[in-house]
Amino acid sequence: MNTSNELTNVSLPLPSRRRAFPLPMLEAGLVVIWSSGFIGARFSIDYAPASLVVFWRCILVTFLLFPFVARPLRQTPPAVLLKNAGIGLLAMAGYLFGVTEGIALGVPAGLAALFADLLPIGMAMLAAVVLRQRLTRGVWAGLLIGLAGVMLATHDALAWGSAPPWAYALPVLGMLSLAVATLWQKHSPDPKALGLLPNLWLQCFVSTFVFAVVAGLHGSLAPVPNAGFAMSVLWTSVSTVGGYGLYWMCLRRATPTRVASVLYLSPPLTLLLAWAMFDEPLSWLMALGMAVSGVGIGLVIRGEARQVAQHGQHR
Predict the structure, then answer these.
(1) Considering the entire predicted model, what is its pTM?
(2) Which residues contact 60 (CB under 8 A, 6 or more apart)?
(3) Is residue 168 part of a domain?
(4) Is the residue at 174 inside a domain?
């Protein structure tokens, strides 16, 4: 029977993992912090271009983390650094560039977020086509139901903007960039792999150069001298470290499909936070959408558990 590498990564045999935080707790933290990143971006657009905020948050993160990661970085072989730099360019620079540039060109934020939230579907399709991984019908049903919940929750926030037609592809390409990075990271085990903090530092470091170019094309790279800009950079820096950090932590303990599907809860939670902070309207569709997404995530987790059990019986 053909089985995927993804299934073999589900078990957690290491004693250190037994003492770790429960995976659902990490996933809950991931959803909250990932959602706060969208709110931080929403907050920052009143003070500076999105690309400038991303550029300075990458600088801030690399500056603050460097004293803690300098030694392990020096001890890491260049080939490992190069691989992780490539993953970082796809996961952070590629994803954020697609979303922020799409919005900057006139793609509505709600629509850009919806395209970005196609991540579970995009990842599953890439895994099936490129890696020849097989998902059960239950998992596919869960992914589609979760997506339906996202569309319900964001229905009132969706609208077509005035962006050129090609700009709508940018958030989709950003989503695919993160999907490729996730699968690359999950399916390229390395005994000399970087730890979490050095990996985050490297991702932000290489992304700094990308956003230096992007922000430079839009204007000056100088920071905006006001408190709102400083707060935007600080806020999004915390969401970068926390969001990506928890994303990679969850990925070490679960399949890419499960981790990505959990992010279906991010759009409705983002809308709830936007209501609390910016007095944006709420609707019953948001609550219904979150409930539907929760059902979809449950089906994904249940379907993968059954697939793992069947795999164990056939070994």
Answers:
(1) 0.81
(2) 233, 234, 237
(3) yes
(4) yes
> Could you tell me the CA-to-CA distances from 84 to 76, 79, 98, 203 in Å, in that order?
11, 9, 20, 7
Q: Report the alpha-carbon distance of residue 312 to residue 165 in Å, rounded.
A: 48
**How many domains does the chain contain in total?**
1
Measured in residues, the chain has a length of 315
Residue 156's domain spans which residues? 23-313
- pLDDT tens, residue order, the chain (315 aa): 444 443 334 333 444 444 468 888 999 999 999 888 877 777 787 888 888 999 999 999 999 999 999 999 998 888 889 999 999 999 999 998 888 788 777 777 667 777 877 888 888 888 777 767 777 788 888 888 888 888 887 776 666 667 788 888 898 899 999 999 988 888 776 655 678 899 999 999 999 999 999 888 888 899 999 898 999 899 889 888 999 999 999 988 888 888 888 888 887 787 788 777 777 667 777 778 888 888 888 888 887 777 666 655 555
Residue 16 lies in a domain: no
Does residue 104 belong to any structural domain of this protein?
yes
